[in-house]
């Protein structure tokens, strides 16, 4: 089974490295990185040759520079650039969401566990990545391993802390709602509260 890791390439000009402290999950081998997906790759890859990377970016010079930085960090993990599938989109926001979603789904190999980082990119791009994790499970033999978000807290313009959140629960709630709808359960809200301890 492949391990597929999906990330957007940042539009920011200067990406600094941080150690992202996991907030609601455990991370054994954390590393300093400019890309929150890197510690997730390090944590969940079984071996480098079994890894697939999907990068999503718009066409501009900052994303090219940041893509090259990501490739350098991947090389430190033993992952070659030929293991990276590139999804390059135009900056036209009207078509980005649907195109990004289906491009991500198409790029994920069958027989994969997929992990996604929704930190970088536009908000519509992050939404497309999030929804692609549900869509791909309906269309392919793919399981979602996790969805993550990296946060940098700043004070007076300087980074003071960096956190990494596991946000897969949001997807799991939607999956559960679809399942209970198929079962004909009437009290969906109560079922959600019981299952998810809300």
Quick gist of this model?
The protein is an alpha/beta fold and 198 residues long. The protein has helices at residues 37-44, 61-76, 93-107, 123-139, 168-183, 188-195; strands at 2-8, 18-19, 21-22, 32-33, 51-58, 84-89, 112-117, 142-155, 158-166.
Structure description:
- The strands form two sheets. Strands 3-9-8-7-1-5-6 form a seven-stranded mixed β-sheet, with helices on both faces. Strands 2-4 form a two-stranded antiparallel ribbon.
- It is globular and about 50 Å long.
- Helix 3 (93-107) runs parallel beside helix 4 (123-139).
- The chain has 198 residues and is an alpha/beta fold.
- It has helices at 37-44, 61-76, 93-107, 123-139, 168-183, 188-195, and strands at 2-8, 18-19, 21-22, 32-33, 51-58, 84-89, 112-117, 142-155, 158-166.
Strand fraction equals 25-35%
Residue runs with pLDDT of under 50 for 5 or more positions: none
Cα-atom radius of gyration: 17 Å
Report the mean per-residue pLDDT as an integer: 88
Strand tally is 9
Span of the ends, CA to CA: 34 Å
Number of helices: 6
How do the SSEs run, as a string of H and E?
Answer: EEEEHEHEHEHEEHH
Trace the largest sheet across and list its strands: 3-9-8-7-1-5-6
Main sheet properties: 7 strands, mixed
Backbone shape = globular
DSSP helix fraction: 40-55%
């Amino acid at each position: 089974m492949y391990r597929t890791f999906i990330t957007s390439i940042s539009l920011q000009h200067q990406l600094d490295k941080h150690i992202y402290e996991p907030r609601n999950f455990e991370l054994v081998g954390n590393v300093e990185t400019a890309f929150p997906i890197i510690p997730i790759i390090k944590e969940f890859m079984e071996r480098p040759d079994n890894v697939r990377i999907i990068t999503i970016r718009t066409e501009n010079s900052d994303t090219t520079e940041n893509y090259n930085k990501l490739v350098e960090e991947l090389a430190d993990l033993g992952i070659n650039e030929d293991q990276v599938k590139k999804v390059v989109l135009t900056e036209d926001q009207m078509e980005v969401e649907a195109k990004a979603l289906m491009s991500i789904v198409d790029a994920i190999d069958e027989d994969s566990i997929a992990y996604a980082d929704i930190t970088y990119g536009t908000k519509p791009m992050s939404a497309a990545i999030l929804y692609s994790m549900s869509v791909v499970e309906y269309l392919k033999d793919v399981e979602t391993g996790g969805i993550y978000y990296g946060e940098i807290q700043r004070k007076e313009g300087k980074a003071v802390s960096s956190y990494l959140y596991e946000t897969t629960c949001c997807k799991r709630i939607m999956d559960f709602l679809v399942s209970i709808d198929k079962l004909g359960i009437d009290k969906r809200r109560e079922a959600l509260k019981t299952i998810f301890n809300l």
